[in-house]
Amino acid sequence: MHHVGSTVSGSAPAGAVPSTRTATTPSGRVVIVSASVGAGHDGAAAELARRLVADGLVVDRYDLLDLLPARLGRAVKESYHRMLVRAPWAYQRIYSSTERAGGGGPAARALLRAAEDRVLRALPTGTGAVVSTYPGASRVLGNLRLAGRLTVPVLTYLTDFSVHPLWVAEGVDVHLAAHAVPAAQARAVGAQDVRVCGPVADPRFRPCDAAERGRARARFGLPERAPLALLVAGSWGVGPVRQVALELRDCGAAVPVVVCGRNKALAEQLRADGIEHSFGWVDDMPGLMHAADVLVQNAGGLTSLEAFAAGLPVASYRCIPGHGLTNAAALDEAGVAAWIRDPADLKAVLCELIEGPRGLRQREGGLALFADPASGPAAEIARVQRSGLSHPSAGPPTPRAGRHFRRAHRRLAVTAATACTLWACAVGTGIETAYNGSNLMHAIGHGLDLDDAAPGHGPRPEGHHS
Questions:
Q1: What is the edge-to-edge ordering of all strands in the sheet holding 174-177?
Q2: pLDDT tens, residue by residue, 50-87
Q3: Is residue 457 within 8 Å of residue 42, measured between CB atoms?
């Protein structure tokens, strides 16, 4: 992953013994650990980094998938992608089971433990705070804090509006939430210091006037006057996108404008269906949002927050399993997005959002999230980095004995076992999809929690987020 404001490589010779990172006085360096699964986690990391650099700090960014042993990051990413595309019901089952259990399976925990030394070695000397924008990274960093091996503050920025228990890792000092709804959910699953700081979005996502709206429509070849519904489905174009696009067209409330991300086959299929305005990867998502009248989404990730910043009303519809459904519920509870549960309501709700008072209320509610940049998550991270933790009892968590002295052969065994599990899951998911073997999927669900390596987007082009 690209490093912002630094040229530190973040790697150490194989077999090197990692040193404990300490900070006796605040430094000017922050490390952000994300994961390139989808685009939402990396998108949040990129914007946090941009703001911190503008505030005078040095920022290093790392992709947790690059720091997993034996190059397993790619396998994790591909397994998650395969499950979302081919067996979404299986992802829902895993998501629900880990939500009830409050954590991932043993193989996922072993994989994250095997990444701890690599993450620790990646932290440059002088690091004053570490920020996670991904649940798996929070678990790794929290474990390092509990073991006493990492003695600078660790913060988790909650990129989702709903908070799965995996987001809240023991050992993390501060959880930053975009709204009171995710903050309450984080506290309910055990987070102690939760601060409501609002969301982050690229500053190009902002309201526009009629003239700019017209130019945006002309630039994308869109109808000049017709109401437009911008349909997004993450960087991978997952979910029942084709069905929703046809429903949008047939209901008559708005002309569908579909962004398919990297799913080229989907874009081609939609054009064959007569959905004229179907795009693949779009670099100018701010412009496309300026052209649209409403956003229809299925995951509730960073794209929704960017729509709020652009003053675009948001509807959640036919959401993907797991975090797509829970995010839709949380956004609806917060009053910033409509959750359309019944297809019969699609036209009426879209019309209300495009032309009615409901749309006006949602625009106001979404923009209110960004009303005070001085209290945003980047500003809070900078304060913690410069001044330490604010509460009187703040300090490193009590170390857990024995964690520091893992033997090399044990790490090797964990890595080998995890590699085998991941391979089996990647193959097993394909078999399950083809043959509907419920017992196999049950075993996978208990063996590997792919949500630890999931919900999802070095910096990436803006435009598609999970």
A1: 58-63, 29-34, 127-132, 154-157, 174-177, 194-196
A2: 999 999 999 999 999 888 876 665 666 566 556 656 65
A3: yes
